[in-house]
Amino acid sequence: MDKTPNNKAWFLVLPVAVLVAFSAVIPLMTVVNYSVQDTFGGNQFFWVGLEWYEEMLHSERMWNALGRQLAFSAIILAIEVPLGVFVALNMPKRGFWASFCLVLMSLPLLIPWNVVGTIWQIFGRVDIGLLGHTLAALGIEYNYTQDAVAAWVTVIVMDVWHWTSLVALLAYAGLQSIPDAYYQAAKIDQASRWKVFRYIQLPKMAGVLMIAILLRFMDSFMIYTEPFVVTGGGPGNATTFLSIDLVKMALGQFDLGPAAAFSIMYFLVILLISWVFYTVMTNLDREGR
């Protein structure tokens, strides 16, 4: 018996579609419009085509910012993913201390980004900050406002402190989903701790780890508030990542055309890399099945 499909359920999706249109599609189209035009004020625009895109592709400033951004994201992933897995492996599996550790690990994630930047800005100051004053007392030269290496270390440690908990919680959830039968079989076979991790825990965590890597990459690649509050992109341009450079171009210099083209290219890079991660995650899921 043929059943006539009922499409009334699509009306339930309509509010979401309208919300997405106003919050994402319309602003995106506005940016695209700015990226192909120029203005000299007075709300008068002139068509320039792909001129701003060509200028950005040949801009040493943009490529330098992209290099710093990729380096930062790579360092963050190289530190936070193994560290988060290590923390998850050593967390209690059940009982009061398991709940205590989960709450404790969640606390950094509840702190707003601008507050995190302010905390580390004060924490690292040589005159009043605990970290900066202690290092100075030990004879270690540390000044994130004047030394590029110190600025990078401060921003990286700050991000690790803020976001390693996310990786740890996701990895912990993956570990909790492993049936006890796997551990019992490994115990019967007298498998070592490393083999249990290599052949049981790591494969079962592969899905959640890919999600963690995707989330951390997207967030680290779009980071703005924390380094801007701590270093302002300095010293010089040492910590001027793509987002900070884009804001300086759009609001500081009011170059709307180049900034719009810059943001579109920025968006496409994030979309491309996220698609790569999604493809890898899908293939891993198929192999797991």
UniProtKB/TrEMBL annotation:
Keywords: Membrane, Transmembrane, Transmembrane helix, Transport. Residues 66-277 form the ABC transmembrane type-1 domain. InterPro entries: MetI-like, MetI-like_sf, Sugar_ABC_transporter. The chain crosses the membrane at residues 12-36, 70-89, 96-123, 149-175, 196-218, 259-280. CDD domains: TM_PBP2. One of its GO terms (biological process) is transmembrane transport. It holds the Pfam family BPD_transp_1. It is a multi-pass membrane protein. One of its GO terms (cellular component) is plasma membrane. It is found in: Cell membrane. Belongs to the binding-protein-dependent transport system permease family. This is ABC transporter permease. It comes from Pseudooceanicola nanhaiensis.
